[in-house]
Amino acid sequence: MLSFINKHLRFFLTGSFSIVFAACYGVPVELENPKLISTKNSDDQAIAGLKVQLFENRNPIDEFYTDENGLVEFYPVQKDKYHYSIKIEDIDGADNGGEFETAKIDITDSNFFEITLKGK
Amino acid sequence: MKLKFKLKTKLHSIYKQIEIKEHKLSYLFLEITRKCNLNCLHCGSDCKADSKFPELTTESWFKIIDYFEKTYSKSVAFIITGGEPLLHPDVFKIGKYISDKKMRWGMVTNGIKLNSSTLHKLIESGIYSITLSLDGLENSHNWLRNSKIAYKKVLIALNEIGKSNIYFKDVVTCVNPKNINELDKLAELLIRNKIENWRLFRIFPSGRAKNNDKLNLSFKQTQEMLDFIAKNKKAYFKKGLNLNLSCEGWISMEKDIQVRDNPFFCRAGINIASILSDGTITGCTNNSEAFHVGNIIKDNFANLWENNFDIFRDRDWLKNTECINCKYFNQCKGSSIHLWENFEDEKPKFCYAVDLEKLKS
Ligand SMILES: C[S@@+](CC[C@H](N)C(=O)[O-])C[C@H]1O[C@@H](n2cnc3c(N)ncnc32)[C@H](O)[C@@H]1O
Ligand code: SF4
Ligand code: SF4
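^ inputs. structure came back:
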């Protein structure tokens, strides 16, 4: 909640949700914006080994795999006015506890994405 | 003070309080060496070629990176610095170790060793942000950098960085009495070389800069530097160069938003920590020994981060200083940590707000 309030305060103060900071002896870095994806099946169980592809304006730019807790964490550098999305695919058949339909979602400013995948 | 700035100041205070309460580690310096191929007049870290300062091994740096990956979020960015980081034999390995974990890293360099081949290796190792030190045109850069070839080399580095597709391409300039009149020429040079970010700061009196008056801007010159930024910020931005005053020094909101994208907030010990080359844990690398809180070799960082960084966060020690009586105290809170040497100091090494006001009166 505090993070949420602060994000909006920052927007009011600087006109931007993200913040680029550089310490005197350091380099510029975007301080915020981790994307935490959590995947589950319809029984609320985590799904491991899913392929998560990140798209920037519909071009694939990176890929990740969910861990044993069904989680992926990544950190896209989101450029203004670009569109970001992810595609979540089951690539190992039934090995991860079932076969799941592919899902696509938009990556918005939010940091957390909880996705329930339907069985095939 | 206009209502708009009053409101912004108030909201910024709330913002800072929340940041302090959350103290999310986002920015971690790794000072991988104290060795340096230059012997700059102003070096606050007192770095030189024959530095005998103890250094952690590459294996230890790997372990440290593993620790931070496991203990904190992947959004922690690692800032590799020195000394001159490009002198470290394993700098590329350390960078790649970080980027293989899908974490971000950046580097600050004097550019002496930066040519197309080293830059290529940095890019292959996944570098995300780079800062090059450029301290003036030929004579003034070579003077401060105490070298006849430094400028020639930094121009090669500048050109290579400009051509690259590294996400953040940044230059820092230590403004001093010798280069203050060259700032417009430097801006042209950076724009020509497609550098996107430029930060200016004063030299602060620590390390070798401690007893060298020739390095310090007078307050009149400091005001000139601020005026230069305020006057040119928008025009340079249109040409692709984002000019900012560095994170150093509190100034009033009204003036701050003319010279910085983000209003002053010293994040040392709040979002920033450093592991120095011998394992010392502190806020920023330029913080004095009074702000060293432990050593990664023997201490549990997460414990220290939760319990021993109060000197950075609540700054209780300021109650014994002159700052406590200042009308700006509630907003400024003692300004930059790096401007304090000891908790017994009466005031910071300089103050952009009060010292500049004295100038006007
Ligand atoms: C300590 S150096 C390390 C990286 C590299 N050797 C270099 O010179 O860029 C990092 C930055 O700190 C700056 N610096 C060093 N001493 C300083 C001082 N006393 N005041 C302000 N900046 C200083 C340098 O100019 C450089 O931009
Ligand atoms: S400022 Fe950088 S280049 Fe100069 S002596 Fe210090 S570490 Fe070396
Ligand atoms: S200690 Fe200095 S360099 Fe570090 S965040 Fe504070 S003002 Fe910036």
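Chain A has a mean pLDDT of 84. The domain at 35-116 of chain A is CATH 2.60.40.10 (Immunoglobulin-like).
thumbs up if we can close this ticket
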